[in-house]
Structure formats: C-alpha cells, structure tokens
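Appendix B. Extra example for self-study. Work through it before the problem class; the solution is given directly after the inputs so you can check yourself.
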Amino acid sequence: MSPHKTTESSKDAAAEYFEKNPSPKALNSHQALAREFIQYHAETSPDRRIVLVTSGGTTVPLENQTVRFIDNFSAGTRGATSAEYFLKQGYAVIFLHRQFSLLPYSRHYSHSTNCFLDFMDEHQDDEGGVVVRKEYQEKMRRVLEEYHYAKQNRLLLLLPFVTVTDYLFELRALATLMHPIGSRAMFYLAAAVSDFFIPRERMDEHKIQSRDNGADGETGGQGSGASRQLVINLDPVPKFLNTLVQSWAPKGSMIVSFKLETNPDLLVAKAEQALERYHHDVVIGNLLTTRKWEVVFITRDGGEHWVRVPKTRRSKSFSGIEKMIGLAERKHEQHPIDLEGGTVTEG
Ligand SMILES: CC(C)(COP(=O)(O)O)[C@@H](O)C(=O)NCCC(=O)N[C@@H](CSSC[C@H](N)C(=O)O)C(=O)O
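Solution. Structure tokens for the complete assembly:
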C-alpha cells in the first residue's frame, strides 16, 4: 500500500475513532494546564525545549462500567527515569502517564519496591520527630533537591491517563498545543499503547456475567446457570503514530518512539518497519526481558546502534540505561549518524 494511501486511511481511521469514542472527562482541564505550562515557558525561557514523555500501559475496558480490562505491560520505569534525565538536561517535561504508574523522583521510593517508610525512624528525642536513617540521607537529599528544583521552576507537568482512548485524545490535544514550540518540541513515546480495542457500539454496559443465569435483563427468563466462555472480539486501534507525525506534531519537532518485542529475531525489522511507515526520527527497540540494560537505536539513515549497559553494571539498582539513551539521543541529535555502533559510554 503506498504511503499516501496509508496516510489517508490511517487519518480516516483516526478521525472515525475520535468521532465514535467519548473524550476523557479530564481532557479540558489537562489542556488548560498544558496551555498554561507551555505559555509560562514561552514567556520565561523562550529557548527551553519541551518534551512530551509518555509512560505506562494503556487499558482496554471490556465493559462500559468497567470491571474488567485488558492492560499493556509497563511499570513506567523507562518514562519516569527518562523524564528525570530530560529535566537534568534543562528540558521542561509534560509527563503523560498511566495513573498510579511510576513517576519521576518518587519512583526511587515507590510503595512497592522501595517503600520510604523502610528508610525512616521515629526520632528518639521528646519532639517525637521522624528522621531518614543516615545511610539513606545522601541519596534521598539529592532526589529531593532535584524534585524541589523541578517543582519550584515549574519544569514538570504530570498528566494521567487510564484507557487507550484517554491516551489518544490526550496525545492529540497536547501535540496540537505544542505547535507554537516548533522545533523545540520533542516527543518521547515510551507508553505501552494497546493495539486492539472494543468499539463502543460493541461494548457491554454492565459487568459481563460469568454464568448464563439470564440475569442480563434482556431475556428475563432463568438461564441454565452454567459457566460460560467469554469470547472477545477486538478491532485494531488506528495507527496513530502516522497521524502524529503527519499532522498533530509541530513541524520540525523530534519524534522518538519505542518498539517493544519479545522475540529478538523480530526486533530490528519491526523497528525499521515502524520508521519506514511513520517517517519520524528514531525508533528505540527493546526486548521485554533485556529492556533494562540494552536498547537498539534505529535511525533514518539506516543505522542500527546498540546501547548496552556493561555487564558489571546490570545490578537491580542501576538505572543508567535511560541516561545512556539520553546521551545517545543527544549525540544523534547534534551529529546525526555519529552514533558509533556498540555501547555508548556513560558521560
Ligand atoms: C514499555 C517499555 C518496555 C518500558 O517498560 P517499563 O520501564 O516497565 O515502563 C518501553 O521501553 C517501550 O518499549 N514502550 C513502547 C511499547 C509499545 O507499545 N510500543 C508500540 C509502538 S508505540 S504505539 C504505536 C501504535 N501501535 C501505532 O503503531 O501507531 C509497539 O511496540 O508497537
């Protein structure tokens, strides 16, 4: 199919998707926050680059009054860690993230892996204060300092999504709001976006019953009460990346998407296919099992550059791959193609 035809058909599919699905309740307030955020930086630091980082997995509800949903894998580590790196590099960050997924800074002390309560003691003086244990104070101070700096300078805007429909409406709205930024805008699409969904007209209103007990209100009669199979019929989500590149995103903006695979034999080819299909700037390919210590950059000049964390640094605590991605990104941006193959050494 010729690119032109693909573009038209994916534009039509995207337009139809937005017509048939309701926009998220929070969209207007998010647009107001983003407009104000972009305006603030345009007035106070007109040269500052603004990056939209997407992070976390989107859901596909099975019922309109959602009890069950299909989720896409993502803890939000990639997006949250990369956002911290962008902030360190002087970007302003709009962080479009799955509700309750990891966030920049607080990810270091998330409720599940590194509960902050484990680093504190009640103070032994009569004030009954609480203190951070000595061995954790230095790191926590550094994180707190960066967090406060980002907040005080209004460099980080946190906007949550839940469903794939929320995500697509938000992405379109934010990309459009970023138009005045032009080539200072960047898109870093680390969110794990659903490829399939249930169209609204085919979605059950109420919780799907697990037994055929006639309780669906339609038949009224007594069902057999036997447990039943659930057959789900999903449609493909419109390929929005094309529409983002062709119309939503500001001309000259840098667009980086991630390609997630589990089969190493498919990764590079699928990432190359995405770049050929969508004509954006870079696809960063990663495998589910090795995503924390290796990624591959697929660039428009046909380059395939692996960025790997040295084996000695692959401990659980090392979160440097995103810093190395940022370094490689910067190198590629400033001097396209000079991403020498092999490991990018950490700066
Ligand atoms: C999700 C992870 C693996 C990070 O994991 P955590 O650190 O645990 O958060 C991220 O690195 C990633 O690959 N993100 C992208 C995953 C993804 O869904 N990519 C899509 C492309 S972007 S969605 C684009 C849409 N399908 C279209 O074609 O328009 C794909 O692989 O197909």
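Self-check: The chain has eight helices and 14 strands. If your reasoning did not lead you there, revisit section 3.
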